[in-house]
């Protein structure tokens, strides 16, 4: 479950701590049930990326309570956060693959960080690359792939750890319609497998094509949920 209660966020603090800047999220409250799929909508600057950053523990709220996968951030020990982060997959508009690593090693990275045995890494990465249709590109560099292919690698990297929560920030923003549909199909398959999925987007045509409940932000406030 993901629960926000009267959450506010200001940037400008040290590290991931609360800052003294203007409040970019204000009084945001909602609950996402496990296994749900939600769009996150709203105009540019409304706070979509900021809300996702709170959800994947990249920043802490300035006020209110954020609870992710059963852990309340206000009372969580710092030492518990890395393990919690490993249960959350993140996909960005600009893919954020490591350019000097092969596709295989990009996808393997979260498993290696988690200390999995190399035999297991090989099996899991091969399986997930087959799922995204890129097993033939395992040895290629990211730059040798199309944008859509790079995004499928980024999804593979995000889900290879079998996250309970998957958040995607404009994952189709740089893709043509066919590639965007392929990415959406993968995100929906993850949802059908029981993962809680949240996808931020501007693309109203995509939302119309894949109807689902939405969180809608305007000027840092949640204006509708459902
Ligand atoms: N790292 C940061 N430091 C300071 N202010 C920030 C930071 N990131 C975002 N903001 C501000 O927070 C507000 C919300 O930005 P955010 O990126 O969350 O909106 P968004 O809805 O995702 O926008 P877009 O659709 O354009 O990506 C904006 O006013 C933005 O300038």
Layout: helices, strands, pairs:
Elements (H helix, E strand, L loop, with lengths): L1 E9 L12 E10 L4 E5 L6 H8 L7 E6 L2 E2 L8 H5 L2 E5 L10 H11 L4 H14 L15 H13 L5 E5 L7 H16 L3 E5 L3 H6 L4 E5 L2 E5 L1
Parallel strand pairs: 3-8, 3-9, 6-7, 7-8
Antiparallel strand pairs: 1-2, 1-4, 4-5, 9-10
Helix pairs in contact: 3-4, 3-5, 4-5, 5-6
This protein binds adenosine-5'-triphosphate (ATP).
Adenosine-5'-triphosphate (ATP) binds next to helix 1.
Give your account of this protein's structure.
By secondary structure, this protein is of the alpha/beta class. The chain has helices at residues 48-55, 81-85, 103-113, 118-131, 147-159, 177-192, 204-209; strands at residues 2-10, 23-32, 37-41, 63-68, 71-72, 88-92, 165-169, 196-200, 214-218, 221-225. The chain has a domain at 34-58 and 84-215: P-loop containing nucleotide triphosphate hydrolases (Rossmann fold), CATH 3.40.50. The chain has seven helices and ten strands. A six-stranded mixed beta sheet has the order 6-7-8-3-9-10, with helices on both faces. Strands 2-1-4-5 form a four-stranded antiparallel beta sheet, covered by helices on one side. The longest helix has 16 residues, at 177-192. Bound molecules: adenosine-5'-triphosphate. Adenosine-5'-triphosphate (ATP) is lined by residues 11, 21, 24, 42, 44-50. Residues 11, 21, 24, 42, 44-50 line the site of adenosine-5'-triphosphate. One of its GO terms (molecular function) is transmembrane transporter activity.
């Amino acid at each position: 479950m993901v629960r926000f209660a009267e959450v506010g966020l200001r940037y400008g603090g040290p590290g991931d701590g609360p800052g003294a800047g203007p409040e970019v999220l204000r009084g945001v409250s909602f609950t996402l049930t496990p296994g749900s799929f939600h769009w996150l909508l709203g105009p540019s600057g409304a706070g979509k990326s900021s809300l996702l950053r709170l959800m994947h523990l990249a920043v802490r709220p300035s006020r209110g309570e954020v609870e992710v996968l059963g852990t309340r951030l206000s009372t969580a020990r710092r030492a518990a956060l890395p393990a919690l982060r490993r249960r959350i997959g993140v996909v960005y508009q600009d893919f954020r693959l490591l350019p000097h690593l092969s596709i295989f090693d990009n996808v393997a990275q979260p498993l290696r960080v988690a200390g999995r045995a190399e035999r297991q890494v090989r099996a899991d990465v091969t399986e997930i690359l087959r799922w995204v249709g890129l097993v033939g590109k395992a040895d290629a560099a990211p730059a040798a792939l199309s944008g859509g292919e790079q995004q499928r690698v980024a999804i593979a990297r995000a889900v290879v750890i079998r996250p309970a929560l998957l958040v995607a920030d404009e994952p189709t923003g740089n893709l043509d319609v066919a590639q965007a549909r392929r990415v959406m199909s993968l995100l929906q398959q993850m949802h059908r497998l029981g993962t809680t999925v949240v996808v931020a987007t501007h693309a109203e045509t995509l939302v119309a094509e894949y109807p689902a409940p939405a969180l809608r932000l305007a000027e840092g406030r949640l204006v509708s949920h459902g």
